[in-house]
Every structure is written in structure tokens, then in C-alpha cells.
Specification:
alpha/beta, 9-stranded mixed β-sheet, 17 helices
Length: 379
């Protein structure tokens, strides 16, 4: 980071820091003053890929139709953006997940709407539809962060996990378009290259970090492969990490690269829990044993419900693993009303007592020091 950039980055981060302070107060005193810093909007929608570790890859029939049919309308998206602003104000991150986001005809409109309200909009894409024009439109609209999914720069590995003709080439080109257009427009847009670590690509993340991890405004995010009961057993056996010894070496290398200044979006706790989870789920016949694996007692309590809010297909939640606190399909209550009501108090207490290990990037815990460090690298 250039020293001349520091004042701008600090000013940009002040609304986020204010929310972090409110969260700390709310977690450690009887006074709850927090508002969400990150709001995740998930909706069923079409995807243009059939990645083998994703429900779009292994679902068929009615199950596939259900996940591909839009469950949260474009109009509801606009309403949600406005209510997010009412609840949290500036310095709030809207993370959109809905099939393949670049297939949504109004994605640029949502970015522009959020930006006009001082909100930061982000999403993750496979990059297959991204061309220079789309990159230019998104950056011009004010997108804050775009995640790009890439499992390996080796096409044989990447396109086994993510079957798509010339998919690796298209994804890497999408990253290049975004970086070039960002520089051309002189906009401060961050790129997050996201990699699911499996038995097939244990070394691939290191190579990805070496290529992009020190570029200004770029971060790399590792996530351990996790499976679900609906996933074919053959896919679980193929992708689940079995060589835990090698995984530990990769994790140690990631930790070292973080100390060397590479922008890697995972905390030390996240790395510890990635290994702990891999060691504990060697039986791939069921996900039930995964529920029994808990974080180490020395790790801090979960505070996800203090600074996060999830809208899953219209259901409003403080955590995806806990009961909803509202429903945007059937209720007239606003997000602000739901955030502060009695149901939210009960669910928030349950999340704080939860000791589940969460390794996905939108759920795992990150200490303030890590958040500040990453923000200064990418903002």
C-alpha cells in the first residue's frame, strides 16, 4: 500500500470502523447498539455452469428447477437495498449470491442503486460471461468488490471441478478485464479470487496467490471443500481432502505468505479450523459427524449475529444455521424492525452460544485486526 493512499483508505473505512466499535460494545456490555456491517442476499436463480461440488452440478429434475427459479424478485432486490440503507447506512456491504450473478439482467442497476446510497455491493462470479463491456459497466456503476471463482490455473484440474469449455481461460480473462478496466477508469474496486481447496488442488491456491496476491486491491480467499447429504458420494470421495498432512503444509505456507504481505483473506483462527475440520470429517458417508465437530474451547464466542444479516430466498436470518427472524415475502415489517425485535434477541443469544466450525468465507470469524489489515490492502 502506498503511503499517499492511506488518508483516502482511512476515510473510506471510518463508517465500517464505527460499526465494528458498536459491535464490540454490543458483544461486551448490556447495551446493544450494533447494526449489520455485512448483509448477504441469497436467491434461487439460473446458473450457466454445473460445477461438480455445487448443487447446480448434481441436482436434477424438480430439485434443479427449484434452485434455478428466481425466488426473490428484482423488485424485492430494490426494496432490500433501500431497507439495508435504512437499517445500516453508509459503510455497509451488500453481498449478493444468486445462481450466476452476471446472468441477472439488472445486476448493474442494483450496483448503481447501492452505490448511490453509499452502500458497497459485491458478488462472486465464475467469469464465463464477463467481457470488457460488462466489466466497464460494473465498475462505472460503483461496484465495491467482485469475487472470481478459480480452483486452479491448470485447466485440467480447474475444468474437472468446474466443467466448462475453455472455462479457465475465460475466468482468468475476466480477472484481467476487471483489473484493466479498474485502472482505466481510475476506480478503487477490489478483486477477490476465491478457491475451494480439495484433494485435487491442494497446491493450486499457493500458485494463485503468487500470481495475484500482491497486486493492489486484490485479495485471495481459500475455503475448504465441504459436502452435503444431497451430494453424490463419488464426488465427496473425489474432492474431500484426505491428505491432511499435505493440507497442513499448505496451511503453514499460507500463514507464511500472509506474513510476507500477500493479501490472503483468512484469519489465523480460520486456518486452524480448516485443518481441524479436515481432520474430523474423514468419514464421507454422512454429514452428521460434521455437526459434532466444534471449535476449540479457547476460541472466542460467535458474533456473526452482531454484525451480519442474511436474506435467504426472502427469509431474514442472523445466521444461515439458525431460525429466521422474519420473512420479506409475507411481512410488511422492515429489516430494521426485524433486527431489533424479540425474535432477533432470542436467535442472537443462540448464535452466541453456538460452537459450530464455519469455514465458508461469509460465516467464519475474523478479528478486528484482520479486518482492518484486509481493508487497507483492498479499499
Amino acid at each position: 500500500m502506498k503511503l499517499a493512499e492511506l488518508p483516502r483508505k482511512v476515510l473510506r473505512g471510518m463508517p465500517y470502523l464505527e460499526k465494528e466499535i458498536k459491535a464490540i460494545v454490543s458483544d461486551n456490555t448490556p447495551f446493544f447498539v450494533a447494526v449489520p456491517r455485512s448483509i448477504h442476499i441469497w436467491r434461487s436463480a439460473p446458473c450457466n455452469a454445473k460445477c461438480i461440488m455445487c448443487e447446480y452440478g448434481y441436482s436434477t429434475g424438480d430439485a434443479y428447477k427449484k434452485i434455478s427459479t428466481i425466488s426473490f424478485s428484482d423488485e424485492q432486490m430494490m426494496r432490500a437495498i433501500e431497507e439495508v440503507h435504512e437499517l445500516s447506512g453508509r459503510g455497509t456491504l451488500i453481498s449478493f449470491i444468486g445462481g450466476e450473478p452476471t446472468l441477472a439482467p439488472r445486476i448493474v442497476d442494483w450496483v448503481r442503486k447501492a452505490s448511490s446510497l453509499g452502500l458497497d455491493f459485491r458478488f462472486t462470479t465464475n467469469g464465463y460471461k464477463m467481457d470488457r463491456k460488462m466489466a466497464a459497466n460494473l465498475i462505472d456503476a460503483g461496484v465495491f468488490n467482485i469475487g472470481v471463482s478459480l480452483e486452479s490455473m491448470d485447466a485440467k484440474v480447474n475444468e474437472f471441478i468446474r466443467p466448462f469449455p475453455l472455462g479457465t481461460e475465460k475466468t482468468i480473462k475476466a480477472i484481467e478485464y476487471l483489473l484493466e478496466e479498474r485502472d482505466r477508469q481510475k476506480k478503487h474496486v477490489s478483486i477477490n479470487i476465491k478457491t475451494v481447496i480439495t484433494e485435487l488442488n491442494l497446491d493450486a491456491f499457493i500458485e494463485i496467490v503468487e500470481r495475484w496476491g500482491k497486486l493492489d486491491g486484490v485479495m485471495c480467499t481459500p475455503q475448504l471443500f465441504e459436502y452435503f447429504d444431497e451430494m453424490p458420494l463419488s464426488t465427496r470421495d473425489t474432492l474431500a481432502v484426505k491428505n491432511v498432512t499435505k493440507l497442513k503444509k499448505v496451511i503453514d505456507r499460507i500463514a507464511k505468505m500472509k506474513s510476507e504481505g500477500y493479501a490472503i483473506h483468512i484469519s489465523d483462527q480460520g486456518l486452524r479450523e480448516m485443518l481441524r475440520l479436515a481432520e474430523g470429517i474423514q468419514d464421507r458417508s454422512t454429514t452428521a459427524n460434521r455437526e459434532k465437530i466444534e471449535m476449540d474451547p479457547s476460541e472466542p464466542m460467535c458474533n456473526i449475529a452482531t454484525d451480519n444479516l442474511f436474506i435467504q430466498h426472502g427469509l431474514v436470518k442472523l445466521c444461515p444455521h439458525h431460525a429466521p427472524i422474519g420473512n420479506m415475502h409475507t411481512e410488511k415489517r422492515t429489516l430494521k424492525q426485524m433486527w431489533n425485535d424479540e425474535m432477533a434477541l432470542k436467535v442472537r443469544a443462540a448464535t452466541r452460544a453456538c460452537r459450530r466450525i464455519c469455514t465458508s468465507s461469509c460465516l467464519r470469524r475474523s478479528p478486528l485486526k484482520h479486518k482492518v489489515s484486509m481493508f487497507l490492502k483492498i479499499a
